[in-house]
Amino acid sequence: MSALRMGGRSGLALYALATVLAVIWLVPVLGAFMISVLPLSETRQGWWQPGLGDLTFGNYSRAWREGLSSYVVNSFVITIGAVLLSVLLGSLAAYAFSRLRFRLKGLTYFLLITTMIVPVQIILIPLLPWFQTLHLTGEVTQYVGIILVHVAFGAGWAIFMLGGFMSEIPEDMLEAARIDGASHLGVFRHVVLPLSLPGIASFALIDFVFVWNDLLLALTLLDRDHQPITVGLANLQAPHLAQENLVSAGSILAILPPLLLFALLNRYYVRGLFAGGVKG
């Protein structure tokens, strides 16, 4: 009984701590939102004491007209392309590393995992001549180039995360599919992929946030017409250093897609985080 009581107290303490941390995190977000719906003159008096008659969403339309619309399109093209390709190639590679035997498997796995610990800044400058040599500076090829760079950085994470899920699938299920005549691709498609959906959703969400929030790679490798919203926010801030309402409106617009995606995938994401923690 005492153990149950201690467990209940520790759980309550964790919930209380999580609530406090959530409130602390929400304060600056709430501040940015309130600044984004107030005239600039009102923000100088303190965003925590606005009048309801002063609220306006005109800052969002102004920030959108300042050029954020094209940056948002670029962000979606880059992020969706990188995430889809990372999930496709990463899930196939994770299945191979977790279920197949082949030469140099250990060495190849080690080299792929090292991409998780290599800082972007180390290879940023060498990437520039590669873009020129491979002709990745055109209207469409710039998207291809930056997507491939993000896929290269996400490959290690994909194999590491998804390989853990796939290695826990009972071998009997895979063997039954092989007995029924399924090839390796058939086993992957009809058995492994559906059972790994929570892990795939978790990785896709994490990779989406990482690619969407990228600033350094996009600022260095892409020209102005192909840069994402993170660079757009920096450009928006430069001519409007004193107009915090426009910058705050752009920031709120920038966090909406990852937030909505998390809300949609939350069920799978939570299952993916805790899958593998209990052996059945």
Seen as an oligomer or otherwise, the chain set is: single chain
Share in helix: over 70%
Largest sheet: none
Structural class: mainly alpha
As a whole number of angstroms, the C-alpha radius of gyration is 23 Å
Global geometry: globular
- N- and C-termini, Cα separation: 26 Å
Got a strand count? 0
Mean pLDDT: 82
The H-level CATH homologous superfamily of the largest domain, spelled out, is MetI-like
Helical stretch tally:
12
The proportion of strand residues reads: under 5%
Known CATH architecture of the largest domain: Orthogonal Bundle
Number of domains: 2
* CATH topology value of the largest domain: MetI-like fold
The SSE order reads: HHHHHHHHHHHH
Catalogue the unreliable spans.
276-280
CATH C-level of the largest domain = Mainly Alpha
